[in-house]
Amino acid sequence: MVYHLEDTITDTLNCLEEKIFIIDLDYKVAWMNDSAKGFIESLKTYFRLDKAEDLIGTPIARFHKNPSYQEEMLQKGDFPIDMQLVLFNKFIARLVVKELIVKEEKLGFILTWRDITEREKEKEKTKAIINELSTPILPTIAENTLLVPLIGELTLERMENLTTKLLNECLNYQAEYVIIDFSGITTVEDPDLGQEIQKLTTTVELMGAEVLYCGFKQDMVKNMVTLGIDTNQKTFVSFRNAIRYVVSKLGKPS
């Protein structure tokens, strides 16, 4: 396989920073450029190799959890193939596969490997920050009372994250009341949200705090009814009304 490639081609591929692998028609690694060699050398313990060059001749099926599907894609010929691959549950790569045709002869496939592990980690960090900012839990002027102002789209993932976070804050603040403000919510579409909201409420009440709802918009109420989301919780038009109720219950002047 390697001998079919002219020196000018291999020299050009070696100048690229991207990791280039050539796969032969038997679906084995036939060649890799210098950037790819350096990458494999840094991961040789994961690949169980003594040196990067030992990867040559290795079937690519070894690196895919579903080898038959992988070969089927290559045989189907719908190029370029763009996919994302996770190796060893640690490294994330974007792979682009094209046919390698030289002088009208198909020699195999050329695979470009882009390591996006760090980029995916940054995306997860950004997502975590957004989740944190979109579900703040704030103390209020009323003693032992927390405010949860929900903003944006209400999803199952957000509700699950909120439940865990809110339980910890209830313990930290010894909360007696939790006011959940829905006035900033823009979308409620998942029919399972009703069950998740009720789960959140029940869990918080088991911690000894009373849960109050406020800020429901007219279209949101209609949507919740359509989705079958039902609640028997005490509700208020606004946070102001809810906090007045709490203050009166605590025996303090409003």
UniProtKB/TrEMBL annotation:
Residues covered by the STAS domain: 143-246
Signal sequence bounds: none
Coiled coil: none
Superkingdom classification of source: Bacteria
InterPro entries registered for this protein in UniProt: Bact_StressResp_Reg, STAS_dom, STAS_dom_sf
Protein name as it appears in the record: STAS domain-containing protein
UniProt lineage: Bacteria, Bacillati, Bacillota, Bacilli, Bacillales
